[in-house]
Structures are given as C-alpha cells and as structure tokens.
Q: What sequence folds into this?
C-alpha cells in the first residue's frame, strides 16, 4: 500500500500524553514510545518535566510551548500529528479550549486521543502519603515536634474509631478511619527516620511485614498446604513460635489493652496451647468479670465486642430516659 500525502485541509491528530509521577521517568509504554517517535511535533509546556531528559536521550525532539486550543488545531493542519506531553497540573485550559472548539461545530477538529504513557500500580497513592507526610514533618510547627510517645494516645483513639466504624457498618466512616490509622503508621515511621542511633523508614516497616507474611504463609508462598482456616491458624502459630522463641504463651500480649480483651486473649493462648489452667478466684467484681470473659471466649464470643453492643443499648436507654424527662 503506497503512502499518500494528506490533503492540505486534513484536520490531523492531537495526542495528549499523560504520565504518572509515581512511576520512574522514562518507563513508558510501547504505544507511547511509538507515538513520540511518530509525531510530527512533540510539545511540552513544562521545561522541567521529569520525562524530558529521557525523551531527549531516546532521540525525541521536544519543543517547549504552551499553545492555545486554536493554535494546536492550526498546527495539525495538513494531517499533521501533534503530541502534547501533559504537565503535572493536567493542562486543563488546553483541554477545555479544545472541548469548546469541538462543541462549536464551526471547525473541522483533528482526531483527539488521550494516551496514558504510564499507569499507577495498586498502592501508588501510598507514595503520595509518604511525600506529604515528609513535607508536613518538615514544615508544620505541630507535626515537626511530635514524638512516638506523644502520638501514642492518637493511635489508640484511631484504632477504637476504626473498630466502631466496622461495628456500625458505616462504609464511609470505615474508609476514613482506615486512612487515619494508616496516617499513624506513616507518621511514626517518618519520626523514626530521625533517630540518631537506630533509624528506620516506612520502607523498612513495609519490608518487615512483607517478610513476615510470606514466612507465615508457607501454604501460599511455599510447599505446605492448608485447606481450612484452622490449618492456616496452625501454620501461623507454629511459625510465630519458631520466630519468637518465647518461654511463655503469655509473652507478647499487651497488658495495657482493655481488661475484657486482655482476659480473652490470655484464655485463647492458653486454650490453643492445650493448657489446663486453674482460674483464680477472689472477692470483687474483677474476678466476676474475669469468669465472664473466660466463658465468653470459650463460647467463641468476643467479650469486649459483646460489652460494647450492650453499652450501646444502655446508651440508647439513657437517651430515651432523657427524652422522657424533657
């Protein structure tokens, strides 16, 4: 098939090339490289765009220009292809201008194509969170002086708010509270970078949990097999015991957690280890609550969650009494 020269009044083609700042510059898709090398002109309004050094190295000539919509349409006359590398701001004035020209119906518009040259991978917005947290740590008068100990109470509060969102079944609240918990992780990791003796970063945190998950899931990443949730739990407990080499099943249980949750966790560890434990007895409501917590755990009931449900019912009863007395 012989190539023919497009007629002078051919409208041509506009390609808007978008890239992700979360992907290393120069890592572009093959269609993007084809478009870059095949275009009659490549334009970019940002002289500091991170892709430009790599494009020049690949032999792509890029002209710094900020054409209006009409100028871009004119540049495509004669069937020319003009590729515009989108800036970080997204070139909204240009795209809006092209939309207005197309809507007028008075101009023969070139073909318009949006070509993503690189895509965000799942989890890419976490990079944004790390970057924002770094800036806040450096510039915010409050955030810049926070310590692990000073933030500890917020971690507890956010965890409880997350639990409440789960129990209430509120999807919007769940989304928000997960973000608040994630912020605590990133904030603490950013503070840890400044430790003069044993610094670590959020990458170290993520790397540690990745290694742990892989090691504790040999049925997923290794040759072991697990057909039931009970098999998985057995794998987890066995590998965890090998890693920690603890002398007691009670090691690693935080004693500062709510009392009912603490009692249930201790009972769960003892039951899993097959220990016959004599439950201590004594005077007072504490021992009565302990007995109730142990009974709940044995029946597969989370006593802390059960008490929260009952407490909410009591809250509703208080409000009803308030309304009745109003």
A:
């Amino acid at each position: 098939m012989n190539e023919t020269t497009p007629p002078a009044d051919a409208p041509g083609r506009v390609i808007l090339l978008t890239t992700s700042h979360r992907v290393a510059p120069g890592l572009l898709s093959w269609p993007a490289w084809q478009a870059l090398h095949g275009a009659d002109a490549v334009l970019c309004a940002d002289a500091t765009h991170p892709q430009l050094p790599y494009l020049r190295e690949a032999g792509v000539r890029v002209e710094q220009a900020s054409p209006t919509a009409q100028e871009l349409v004119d540049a495509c006359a004669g069937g020319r292809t003009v590729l515009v590398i989108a800036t970080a701001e997204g070139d909204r004035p240009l795209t809006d201008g092209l939309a207005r020209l197309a809507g007028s119906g008075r101009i023969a518009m070139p073909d318009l194509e949006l070509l993503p040259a690189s895509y965000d991978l799942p989890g890419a917005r976490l990079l944004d969170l790390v970057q924002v947290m770094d800036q806040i740590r450096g510039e915010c008068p409050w955030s810049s002086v926070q310590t692990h100990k000073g933030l500890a109470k917020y971690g507890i509060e956010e965890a409880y708010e997350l639990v409440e969102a789960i129990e209430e079944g509120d999807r919007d609240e769940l989304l928000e509270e997960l973000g608040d918990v994630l912020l605590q992780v990133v904030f603490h990791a950013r503070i840890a970078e400044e430790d003069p003796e044993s610094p670590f970063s959020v990458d170290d945190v993520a790397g540690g949990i990745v290694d742990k998950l892989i090691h504790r899931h040999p049925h997923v990443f290794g040759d072991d097999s697990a057909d039931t949730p009970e098999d998985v739990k057995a794998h987890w407990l066995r590998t965890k015991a090998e890693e920690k080499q603890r002398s007691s099943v009670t090691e690693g249980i935080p004693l500062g957690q709510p009392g009912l949750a603490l009692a249930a966790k201790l009972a769960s560890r003892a039951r899993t280890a097959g220990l016959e434990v004599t439950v201590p007895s004594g005077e007072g409501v504490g021992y009565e609550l302990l007995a109730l917590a142990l009974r709940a755990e044995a029946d597969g009931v989370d006593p802390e969650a059960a008490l929260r449900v009952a407490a909410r019912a009591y809250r509703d009863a208080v409000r009803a009494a308030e309304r009745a007395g109003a």
